[in-house]
Amino acid sequence: MRFHSRTSSAGVVEQPFTLGEVPGVLWTPEGARGTRPLILMGHGGGQHKKAPGILARARRFAAEGGFAVAAIDVPNHGERPTAPEFDRLAADYRARVRAGEDTASLDTALYTLVVEQTVADWQAVLTAVQHLDHVGGGQVGYWGMSLGCALGMPFVAAEPRVRATVLGLQGSPVLTEAAARILVPVQFLLQWDDELMPRAQGLALYDAIGSTEKTLHANPGRHGDLPRFELDDTLRFFARHLG
Amino acid sequence: MRFHSRTSSAGVVEQPFTLGEVPGVLWTPEGARGTRPLILMGHGGGQHKKAPGILARARRFAAEGGFAVAAIDVPNHGERPTAPEFDRLAADYRARVRAGEDTASLDTALYTLVVEQTVADWQAVLTAVQHLDHVGGGQVGYWGMSLGCALGMPFVAAEPRVRATVLGLQGSPVLTEAAARILVPVQFLLQWDDELMPRAQGLALYDAIGSTEKTLHANPGRHGDLPRFELDDTLRFFARHLG
């Protein structure tokens, strides 16, 4: 694990890193020493490890929750090279969204292309980050919406170190099997008027989650319109389960 | 408004009252002076103003939130006389629940029997309570599950003094029209495995609510199994909107 820089602002230290071929960022509270809970944050489709939503949540989790937070670029995103097959699918996806057409089959194709690599990447990053003195082997949570949920579900299902997860903005039936293997507490966010994920599919995916503690939070609005107060709830959810 | 007694424990003052034919209870923080937000709490079917769930929530809202809280016995419940027609319906309802049969049509009949009177009772109690020095004319919220939601929806829809509401455990189609007239922020609680309210009807009732800010919280479990952490969320919801 190589760190490239270290900057600090508003009480949060930001350290971009590379682990093998995986570019990532670690955020920790300024002056952090010793073990603390760690949140892994998976970005959405077309986004990257420092997309505005990721950055805002990561800084708040570190500053207000005292968490360590790590984000990575998933395959074909951010600083990582894109495979020609992915480029074709992504262009097709954008064209369908513009035309108001269904994108569910492409979600599955995009997911299938990168899911195995992403799970392996997250497991390697988790191991490496927990070796750092100011992170350590504490409780681990995973946060991911949309593509971050699609890639997060198989990761959370496979990874016993993850003890709580916030997922959502997803309903792809290809995730049903992974969802059923998730047994840790889940907060699942759904946008009632999501133009990319049919409501019934989102509800079915929540239903498929295997956990006995799983809370669905639904709000009016489109895919990108998660209300601000859900971030407050997410922070409390992680504090309750990992704190 | 006649008060019958005044007891105090664990920082909360409890004052049973009668207003006309309506028996109620007012809870306020010990030493309360001046205007504060007020929560009106509607009990469930077969329950009353001091049912254990009402009492626990009321005491916590007063002690932790600094709210005034009022509960009443709705018609045919608690200390109020029961009409023969209501007795017949209630016996039929209990028999159907024991037999695992559908109760939706009886919900509607029970609701229709008392809704007008209940809305008038709540409006009178709200006016009277807000004349008290240690309550005053502050922001008002309404909390009610199950029958408390069925009777609460028309009340909240009709009463501009109510500024935020927590409702749920309901899905009766007879409420659709009242739900559509609710425009204040709503938190709507749904039990995913509710044996009394079909899931699809609960989701449809949430969908019908007219408010732009309305959050659905769903959790696994039966009608009576609301998880404890939802009470924390309710307290924060009211604090955010009425505080």
Automatic annotation (TrEMBL), chains A, B:
Origin species, per record, is Streptomyces griseorubiginosus
Assigned keywords, A-Z = Hydrolase
**Entry's family note:** Belongs to the AB hydrolase superfamily.
Q: What is this protein called?
A: Uncharacterized protein
Any one GO molecular-function label of the UniProt entry: carboxylic ester hydrolase activity
The coiled-coil segments of this chain are none
Question: Do you know which PANTHER family this protein is assigned to?
Answer: DIENELACTONE HYDROLASE DOMAIN-CONTAINING PROTEIN-RELATED, POLYKETIDE TRANSFERASE AF380
